[in-house]
Amino acid sequence: MPFPALLLLFGAVLILQSTVLGFITVYGIKPDLILLMAVFNGFLLGPRQGAFLGFVGGIMADLFTGSYIGMNAISKMVAGYLAGIFGERFYQDNALVLSGVTFVSSILGLLVDYLLLHFLEIQVTIFYAFFRVIIPTAFYNAVLVPLLYGHVLRFMKIKSSEP
Amino acid sequence: MRGATAKRLFLLAVLLATTLAVMHFTVPERTRSVSLEYRFRDTLAPVQVGLTWLSGQVRHLMSLPVSTVRAGARNQFLEQEVARLESQVVKLTEYKLESERLANLLNYKHIVAEDYNLLAASVVSRDPGNWFGTVSLNRGAVDGIKENMTVLTPEGLVGRVFSVSSTTCGVLLITDPRSGVGSLIQESRISGVVEGTAGSIGMARMIHIPNNAPLEIGQAVITSGLGSIFPKDIPIGEITDIRSEPSGLFNSADICPYADLSRLEEVLIITSVNT
Questions:
Q1: Which among A155, B29, B67, B214 is least buried, having the fewest CB atoms inside 10 angstroms?
Q2: Nearest CA to A45 among A77, A92, A2?
Q3: Are the Cβ atoms of B197 and A132 closer than 8 angstroms?
């Protein structure tokens, strides 16, 4: 995908994330669509692609909020890279496998977020961080995978068949 | 010839007499005539019922193809109508809820008009992540908004303005881990600090409460006015859980904010405090 188109796509996803997704929260938690995109990309196209997309999407999310620029970029880059490593080792044509990979990658990406929050001296108690943010967000992301997997796979196949 | 005429006249007379007699006996007020009518009706009733039923069935059978075609079209029309009306009901419900919320804000504005100058604002967007609790409002520098202005709803404290652009402003919710509000427990007047836990949780906690202070679940927590950002006596929330801090010297209490921070749509900004 051309880089400007990618930026536009991220912009649209971020607008969705900050508006509509606020209405589908479960216990206050909303899914992280940028992280999902990084994980999908990494899992299907490899660690480098996952890390790149995660970094670009994360930077855009940071610029969107206007604070702690680089925090989302690093955590989503890690999640995309890890999903890429898992993608090289697991069977790719199975939504459940990707669900599991998304769950684990999200947890690790959000753990990086947590460490960066500590680095920035923003105190979130470990109980709240794990049981009220990290695990619920990772679970919500993983649940969305089977709903999106078919569409993403079809899109990827169309893109790869283009000359 | 004369005999035939007489016979005809006689028959006519008999007919007339019979008719007159029947007329006489079938006057409605008379019970005899009623019973006669009833007898006729009772005798004919089963036949009439049968015929009526049969006619109905035939008519139904004959008109079935036509009515089926019409029913199909009508059903389609009604389905569209139901969908249109359902959408209208949703829209009207939304208007009703919005009107109720705005009426509450207006009412609250009138109640606290002596204490504060308030400006109503709508939530435009929220923080895209789950760690922080921030929202953007549709009021900015052109509306006189400045940093650290207090944001609230009629239910309670929401947060403070932390960034201002010309037409929008960012609000740090009291549930954001970067937020700290000087507060006190309404009943016992014990002071502490209410700080956020994580944006998505929708909870805050009051820390540094001396461990000998009487604490109870359900107690109200209000702003203390210390720290000069938030005015005094704004309700924050109620205590839902009490814990001991690791140092052992203090307790902390989980606070459920009175304002529903996950469903914020309209808020009020305190632009100035009347002294």
A1: B29
A2: A92
A3: yes
Residue A122 pLDDT: 86
The answer as to whether A19 is a domain residue is: no
The CATH number of whichever domain residue A126 belongs to comes to 1.10.1760
Averaged confidence pLDDT in chain B: 81
pLDDT digits (tens, 9 = 90+) for B34-67: 555 456 556 666 666 676 677 667 767 777 777 7
A118 assigned to some structural domain: yes
Distance CA B264, CA B123 (A): 7
Distance from C-alpha of B80 to C-alpha of A77, rounded to nearest angstrom = 49
Total structural domains within chain A: 1
Structural domain includes residue A15: no
**Residue B27's CB: how many other CB atoms inside 10 A?**
10
For helices A47-65 and A33-45, angle between their N-to-C axes, nearest 10 degrees: 160
C-alpha B117/C-alpha B123 separation (Å) is 19
Which residues from chain B sit within 8 angstroms of residue A21, using beta carbons?
Answer: 128
Domain annotation covers residue A22: no
Total-model pTM: 0.71
> A32 CB near a chain B CB, below 8 Å?
yes
Walk me through the domains of chain B, giving residue ranges and CATH numbers. Answer: 116-273 (2.40.10.340)
Q: How many angstroms away from the CA of A132 is the closest CA of chain B? A: 7
- Cβ contact B81:B230 at 8 Å: no
Under 8 Å CB pairs connecting chains A and B tally to: 64
Which of A15, A60, A67, A127 is most worth mutating to test chain B (most B CB atoms within 10 A of its CB)? A67
Q: Can you tell me the distance from the alpha carbon of A142 to that of A151, in angstroms, rounded to the nearest whole number?
A: 16
Residue A78: which domain range? Answer: 3-9+29-158
Inter-residue contact B266 to B120 (CB < 8 Å): yes
Write down the ipTM of this complex. Answer: 0.86
Q: B112-143: per-residue pLDDT in tens?
A: 667 788 899 988 888 888 888 889 999 989 99
Q: Assess A150–B contact: CB distance below 8 Å, yes or no.
A: no
Q: Which of A15, A25, A124 sits opposite B198 (nearest CB)?
A: A124
Query: What is the predicted pLDDT for the residue at B31?
Result: 46
Place of tokens 């990494």: A42
Burial of residue A147 (CB within 10 Å: 0-12, 13-18, 19+) is exposed
